[in-house]
């Protein structure tokens, strides 16, 4: 939203202040209700913007390929102006001219007449043809062939041709989607009813043909072209002031000269080097002309022109002259070419050999998609050159590509190559395809079909540089349109900007050699309706502040007379009051403040609280895996006499390895019993795709989660949170078993080797917690055992284990990992430094989260029967298991009891249970329910509440 609602001038603001003043005068009698009405309705949003013109229906399908259709009476016509030596005999001049043109330019005329079905009208260049009739153009194309000064074009004909060229064309090549466009489409559908039956899908698209509006001028000017024609070429490529740069001279090249043996008599009589090979053809634009291959060349004989080198100069550096942005060279002379001195059309200012700027063929395209082609050597497209298939040069045989070159450049000039069109414009609100009522903040989608004319049929355009603008005068959003697979549809989605008004979509595409596209489609944005607008805006913060201050001032004035009586009464109640609900509320507030403090301490790198990862049923061990099936009498006797040892880890407080806790046979039977019961994945796989893309930060937030943190007995089932599986952080299958008998056997074997007594005091800042103050003694092994199986490549990222809390005086402090087998490779348990808690996780080649190698203190190899013990706040990591290996472990704890028991009454135990539930609710954000539990705890055991600082 933002401040877009407040852009309607000062009148709404003055009206709002006047309304505020009236409401404040009546606030004594109406009280708080008047304030609510004032805040909710004092300002009325601006009126909505006009409804946009709807685009094409959103359910119209896109069409990939379809042929170009023409109206029966729409026959393209070409005017041929020539200087052929034809006898002026009535009735035969036109026929003789066409016959001579077909003989001299056989392949060119065959393409125009036979392939494109264009009607050709041939007239002498000295005649004055009629280009317009009844306000309409008679011809679509004009072809001028001149190589002699015997016939001069009239000045009026040059002016008429320029007027004819400027009056044609259209920048937007596509069917309009407004009302007149729909009417035109309906007329076309009625006229082409028979074609609709054969191609029903084609009529769903509006049709545009470049022949209908664009016009083309093709100039084939030889060495003796008249100055008027050069003036026409200069005007077509730019201003008339550039005409001197188009004065042509004969060009020759002695290094690339072609032997005249295979050429005509005319070429054999010319000086050596005037017929030469050319290879510097326009590259990178196959929609205009196909680049030459290594074994191809072009034959050229004629003149050169200057001034049309706007787009590159081949493979060498050259200067550029100021020209229209749509002029570009097609064919450049070789670096070794030079101009032959001639007195024809030469003067002191232009008689120079600037060979680096010689152009042999150039093209230009106006904004209206009218095209101009200039070829300074008509012989290059004559039958003499186009009939040749190959020719030797410098000892090698090269293919002659004149036929293909002339056909392609003329096809481009006739709008048969590099022609684009748009159709099927759609824009709508995402999720509501038939809605075109756009509001600020909506998600909008725009799509359009773009086709390119290739070989007489329309194919999907394959460009990747089509841009769309959403503008209000100036563009507010500019986005690239993305093509959908192989379809012609280009689309994009974006959020509507915070600018209400008459906006429109603008698609403008102008590239070298392609017909330019320009499309406008109205899509106004309006402000939200009154019932959909936000009640409070950041821009009105000052207004809200003034209203609240005035309200407080009036309230203070009304109660000022009674304040002297209220204060003594309040002090008397304060001295006599007993515990009440207000005290409970204060205690709850203090408890919530304490929870916020501990959460901040945790985020700062302190010890983490227990987190409940997943809620799974616990199996009763004596029933599914009896102790007699795991450990027999012989194993028990062997266990009594077995030599067990303890190996401390240097640099880590009370971290050690116990060897020989279980025998190999016992471990094997435990694995078989666990496999027969069945393992399950450690977490619920609710969204595997989401879990695979979980960021490193989310893994850091889970680093305090424990394998077995869900085993707390005093936690209600409603507070147990199920998190999505993160395969990159942890991938294991687990089985949780309640087995007091097996725990007792393990305790008998390790009881003499563990930390028997530990003392916590406020002086030990690293390990001290409010709940741990005092001396604790080891009392046994946690009877809840977690069996874990890690397959090849599975791991457990850096984490710290939580604790199992039985009651206020009994909890786990030292986690114990018992290895049931020895993997061939991998599966080590890495003990990490405290600094790892403040560092982000790294990822290995497989994308698994791992610790910083510099933070690894000790790496414990998984050996069958051994056990690793460490303090509960110690960060560690389970390394990935090697290929073809498996890893089985038992995860349990050494339980400790407070030496001097505290809060042992039933009321204290119940209050401690309430405290734990309130903690979990506060962590989940359910502050209201947590506050109620804190109040109950304060009432049940005030001493315990005081112990926790409440």
TrEMBL record:
Residues 780-896 form the Fe2OG dioxygenase domain. One of its GO terms (molecular function) is iron ion binding. GO terms for biological process: protein N-linked glycosylation via asparagine. Keywords: Dioxygenase, Iron, Metal-binding, Oxidoreductase, Transferase. GO terms for cellular component: oligosaccharyltransferase complex. Its cofactor is L-ascorbate. The lineage of its organism: Eukaryota, Sar, Alveolata, Apicomplexa, Conoidasida. Coiled coil: none annotated. Residues 690-703 have a biased composition (Polar residues). Residues 172-203, 564-589, 690-724 are annotated as: Disordered. This is Dolichyl-di-phosphooligosaccharide-protein glycotransferase, putative. The keyword Signal does not apply.
């Amino acid at each position: 939203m933002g401040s877009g609602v407040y852009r309607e001038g000062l009148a709404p603001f003055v009206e709002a202040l006047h309304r505020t003043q009236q409401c404040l005068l009546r606030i004594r009698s109406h009280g708080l209700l008047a304030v609510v009405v004032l805040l909710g309705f004092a300002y009325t949003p601006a009126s909505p913007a006009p409804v946009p013109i709807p685009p094409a229906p959103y359910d119209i399908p896109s069409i990939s390929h379809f042929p170009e259709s023409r109206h029966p009476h729409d026959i393209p016509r070409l005017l041929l102006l020539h200087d052929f030596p034809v006898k002026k005999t009535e009735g035969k001049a036109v026929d003789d001219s066409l016959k001579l043109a077909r003989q001299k330019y056989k392949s060119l005329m065959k393409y125009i007449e036979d392939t494109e079905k264009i009607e050709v009208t041939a007239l002498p260049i000295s005649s004055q043809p009629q280009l317009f009739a009844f306000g309409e153009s008679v011809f679509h194309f004009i072809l001028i062939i001149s190589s002699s000064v015997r016939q001069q074009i009239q000045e009026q004909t040059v002016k008429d041709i320029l007027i004819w060229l400027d009056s044609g064309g259209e920048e937007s090549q596509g069917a309009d989607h407004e009302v007149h466009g729909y009417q035109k489409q309906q007329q076309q559908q009625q006229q082409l009813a028979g074609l609709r039956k054969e191609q029903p899908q084609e009529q769903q698209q509006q049709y545009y043909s470049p022949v209908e509006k664009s016009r083309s001028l093709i100039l084939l000017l030889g060495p003796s072209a008249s100055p008027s024609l050069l003036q026409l070429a200069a005007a077509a490529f730019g201003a008339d002031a550039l005409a001197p740069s188009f004065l042509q001279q004969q060009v020759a090249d002695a290094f690339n000269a072609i032997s005249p043996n295979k050429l005509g008599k005319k070429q054999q009589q010319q000086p050596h080097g005037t017929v030469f090979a050319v290879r510097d053809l326009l590259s990178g634009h196959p929609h205009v002309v196909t680049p030459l291959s290594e074994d191809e060349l072009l034959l050229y004989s004629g003149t050169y022109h200057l001034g049309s080198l706007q787009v590159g100069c081949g493979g060498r550096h050259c200067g550029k002259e100021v020209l229209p942005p749509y002029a570009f060279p097609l064919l450049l002379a070789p670096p070794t070419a030079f101009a032959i001195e001639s007195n024809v059309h030469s003067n002191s200012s232009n008689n120079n050999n600037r060979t680096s700027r010689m152009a042999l063929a150039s093209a230009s395209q106006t904004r209206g998609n009218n095209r101009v082609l200039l070829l300074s050597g008509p012989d290059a497209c004559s039958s003499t050159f186009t009939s040749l298939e190959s020719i030797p040069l410098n000892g090698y045989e090269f293919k002659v590509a004149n036929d293909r070159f002339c056909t392609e450049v003329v096809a481009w000039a006739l709008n048969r190559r590099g022609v684009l069109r748009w159709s099927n414009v759609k824009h709508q609100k995402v999720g509501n395809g038939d809605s075109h009522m756009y509001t600020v903040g909506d998600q909008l989608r725009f799509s359009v079909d773009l086709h390119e004319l290739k070989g007489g049929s329309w194919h999907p355009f394959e460009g990747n540089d089509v841009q769309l603008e959403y503008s209000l005068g100036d563009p507010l959003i500019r986005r690239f349109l993305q093509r959908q697979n192989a379809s012609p549809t280009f689309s994009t989605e974006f959020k509507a900007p915070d600018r209400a008004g008459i906006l429109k979509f603008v698609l403008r595409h102008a590239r070298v050699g392609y017909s330019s596209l320009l499309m406008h489609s109205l899509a106004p944005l309006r402000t939200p309706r009154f019932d959909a607008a936000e009640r409070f805006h950041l821009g009105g913060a000052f207004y809200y502040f003034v209203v609240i201050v005035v309200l407080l001032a009036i309230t203070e004035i009304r109660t000022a007379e009674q304040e002297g009586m209220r204060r003594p009464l309040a002090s008397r109640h304060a001295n006599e009051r007993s515990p009440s609900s207000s005290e409970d509320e204060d205690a709850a507030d203090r408890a919530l403040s304490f929870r916020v403090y501990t959460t901040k301490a945790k985020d700062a790198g302190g010890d983490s609280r227990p987190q409940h990862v997943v809620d799974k049923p616990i199996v009763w061990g004596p029933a599914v895996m009896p102790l007699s099936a795991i450990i027999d009498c012989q194993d028990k006797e062997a266990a009594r006499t077995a030599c067990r040892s303890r190996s401390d880890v240097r640099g880590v407080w009370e971290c050690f390895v116990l060897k020989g806790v279980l025998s190999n046979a016992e471990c094997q039977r435990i694995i078989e019993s666990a496999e027969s019961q069945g393992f399950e994945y450690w977490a619920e796989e609710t969204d595997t795709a989401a879990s695979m893309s979980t960021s490193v930060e989310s893994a850091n937030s889970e680093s305090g989660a424990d394998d077995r943190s869900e085993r707390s007995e005093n936690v209600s089932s409603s507070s147990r949170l199920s998190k999505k599986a993160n395969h990159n952080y942890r991938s294991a299958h687990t089985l949780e078993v309640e087995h007091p008998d097996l725990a007792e056997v393990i305790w008998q074997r390790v009881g003499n080797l563990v930390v028997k007594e530990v003392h916590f005091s406020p002086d030990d800042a690293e390990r001290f917690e409010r709940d741990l103050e005092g001396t604790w003694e080891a009392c046994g092994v946690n009877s809840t055992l977690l069996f874990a199986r890690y397959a090849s490549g599975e791991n457990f990222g850096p984490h710290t284990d939580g604790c199992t809390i039985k009651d206020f005086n009994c909890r786990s402090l030292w986690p114990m990992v018992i290895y049931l087998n020895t993997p061939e490779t991998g599966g080590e348990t890495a003990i990490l430094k405290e600094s790892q808690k403040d560092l982000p996780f790294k990822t290995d080649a497989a994308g698994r989260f791992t610790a910083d190698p510099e933070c690894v203190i000790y790496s414990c190899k998984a050996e069958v029967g051994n056990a690793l013990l460490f303090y509960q706040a110690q960060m560690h990591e389970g390394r990935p298991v090697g290929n073809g290996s498996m890893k089985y472990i038992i995860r349990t704890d050494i339980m400790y009891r407070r030496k001097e028991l505290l809060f042992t009454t039933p009321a204290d135990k119940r209050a401690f249970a309430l405290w734990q539930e309130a903690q979990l609710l506060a962590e989940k954000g359910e502050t209201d329910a947590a506050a109620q539990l804190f109040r109950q705890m304060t009432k049940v055991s005030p001493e315990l509440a005081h112990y926790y600082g409440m």
